[in-house]
Amino acid sequence: MAGTGVFTEIVDGDQVYKYYADGEWKKSASGKSVSIVNPTTRKPQYKVQACTQEEVNKVMEAAKAAQKLWARTPLWKRAEHLHKAAAILKEHKASIAECLVKEIAKPAKDAVTEVVRSGDLVSYTAEEGVRILGEGKLLVSDSFPGNERSKYCLSSKVPLGVVLAIPPFNYPVNLAVSKIAPALIAGNSLVLKPPTQGAVAALHMIQCFHLAGFPKGLISCVTGKGSEIGDFLTMHPGVNCISFTGGDTGIAISKKAGMIPLQMELGGKDACIVLEDADLDLVASNIVKGGYSYSGQRCTAVKVVLVMESVADAIVEKVKATMAKLSVGSPEDDCDITPVVSESSANFIEGLVMDAKEKGATFCQEYRREGNLIWPLLLDHVRPDMRIAWEEPFGPVLPVIRISSVEEGIHHCNASNFGLQGCVFTRDINKAILISDAMETGTVQINSAPARGPDHFPFQGLKDSGIGSQGITNSINMMTKIKSTVINLPSPSYTMG
Ligand SMILES: NC(=O)c1ccc[n+]([C@@H]2O[C@H](COP(=O)([O-])OP(=O)(O)OC[C@H]3O[C@@H](n4cnc5c(N)ncnc54)[C@H](O)[C@@H]3O)[C@@H](O)[C@H]2O)c1
Fold first, then answer.
1. Nearest CA owner, ligand 1 atom 3
2. Cβ(234) – ligand 1 distance below 6 Å
3. DSSP symbols for 390-448
4. Is the torsion defined by CA of 311, 314, 317, 323 positive or negative?
5. CB distance 201 to 94 below 8 Å
6. Does residue 227 carry a pLDDT above 90?
7. Residue-level pLDDT at 420
8. 299 an active-site residue?
9. Is it the case that residue 80 has pLDDT exceeding 90?
10. CA distances from 242 to 72, 235, 263 (A)
């Protein structure tokens, strides 16, 4: 149960969840809290501390001091701590999943999957870190013109310092550990600012790291209003790297942040291009899974279908038939479609639907909404003048644009300000490769819906979809910098055969 057993110490007598600093669970001196509304009941579910700027300053000081010691901790020991945290996280999957159900209306089974996947990610990161951080490079000088072999350059990867991690609401545990684990294995300290919806799940996850025995101050978690501590955190001089996942907020953060490495995973408008020769059943099942899983609240959800006119009717019919099987209701009942995260999100989605209605889109189902619960909707005959053709609904609404040539599909995809992922369905691998190369997105999936995982694959967005590349290996590398030492010999030395 959330807030009980090993989690009792993370909540105070007034049922306000504490923040985590200097190895302890604390109440904020602000005396204020932030309320978390359950998307299903639309009633307050949890409360977290509204941390002050002074508390952020203290966390940064502790993080800086703890990092110096952590960087001297042997790599195998850092890995051991992470393996321990992963095991504790998995052991407590039910309590953490319960929070995900209540805070972000994640279907019960998916909530458990998120926690288990997170534990696996932490373990894999520990193993990968041991491998890649244990290796460096030796360069010799005589490969560059004008040099003899008198300089040996040894380069290795060293930590950056304090990493600030800001994950979004939709995967508050998984997208937090995908930043925490690489930061720690690489010898950094970590300050987490969880999303408001999802903060309590994140605090439970942090308690698992606490129980794994990491040194004091190495990991902290501050909660509070983005408007009060958001800019203060991202512009803090103590921060040496920001890893952020979310929407347009990330664009503003990247403009304000100082001269530090940034990892930005932002929004997407992932296109699904369907050619005439595609396996239509495979396409339909992928469109439904890709478009409507977790009610479309995934960065890699299929967000626009670009289908060749000749197979459009068949695809729309098959998608409709598959959609009819989706269950709609509460996350506790493990329904496929659950309430979206907030009323403002539901209103935004409705705005896109009404715009499409006014401009003449074909509704494949009746539009239906109760509170934050929106029934899955497919909009056919969407045209480029409709907002839904370009904007990310982050809800269970998917537009279909009929195209008369592949070029038209690629043009629509590339005209987007986003460039996260995309997919193409065809039996012709040569065409698939040409289309993949032409699509301006970080990844293209051939014959499958976009997806972030497996978590060790590279994951990146072009244009407004992000900066840098992630995936376990890339994140570890991104959270280090190269340090080199050059040995200067008095005379050239050549190795003999
Ligand atoms: N590319 C990816 O990997 C990926 C993955 C998941 C979600 N997303 C995107 O995330 C968005 C949905 O998530 P969201 O609604 O939580 O995004 P969001 O941008 O509203 O919030 C993301 C995080 O930023 C914090 N935040 C808000 N204002 C801040 C400020 N001024 N300073 C610092 N932090 C601040 C929030 O509290 C939250 O933790 C969608 O656009 C989705 O596509 C992207």
1. 265
2. yes
3. TS---SSEEEEEEESSHHHHHHHHHHSSEESEEEEE-S-HHHHHHHHHHS-SSEEEESS
4. negative
5. no
6. no
7. 98
8. yes
9. yes
10. 22, 10, 6
Cα 473 to chain center, whole Å? 15
Nearest to 312 by CA among 246, 415, 401, 387: 401
Using the mean position of ligand 1's atoms as its centre, give its distance from the Cα of residue 194 in Å.
Answer: 10
Query: Does 134 have pLDDT greater than 90?
Result: yes
What type of residue is 50? A
Among candidate residues 103, 265, 391, 392, the one labeled active-site is 265
Q: Which of 208, 299, 335, 364 is catalytic?
A: 299
Mark whether 265 is an active-site residue. yes
96's tokens: 């953490």
Distance 50 CA to ligand 1 centre (A): 19
Q: Show the tokens assigned to 444.
A: 């293209």
Are 65 and 198 in contact by the 8 Å Cβ rule? The answer is no
Residue listed under structure tokens 């930043």? 179
User: 168 CA to middle of ligand 1, Å?
Assistant: 4
Q: Is 90 exceeded by the pLDDT of residue 157? A: yes
Distances in Å between the Cα of 243 and the Cα atoms of 116, 135, 159, 325 are 22, 24, 14, 38
Nearest-angstrom CA–CA distance, 219 and 192: 8
DSSP reduced 3-state for 11:
strand
| pLDDT for 102 | 98
Q: Which atom of ligand 1 is nearest to the CA of 172?
A: 39
Reported as a single tens digit per residue, the pLDDT across 282-317 is 999 999 999 999 999 999 999 999 999 999 999 999
- Average pLDDT over the chain, rounded to an integer: 97
Contact 168 CB / ligand 1 (< 6 Å):
yes
pLDDT digits (tens, 9 = 90+) for 398-413: 999 999 999 999 999 9
55 Cβ below 6 A of ligand 1: no
The per-residue pLDDT for 217 is 98
Burial 137-161 (b: 16+ CB within 10 A, else e): eeebbeeeeeeeebbeeeeebebbb
Ligand 1, atom nearest to 168 Cα = 16
Name the pairing type of β-strands 44-49 and 137-140: unpaired
Question: What residues have CB less than 8 Å from 131, skipping those under 6 apart?
Answer: none
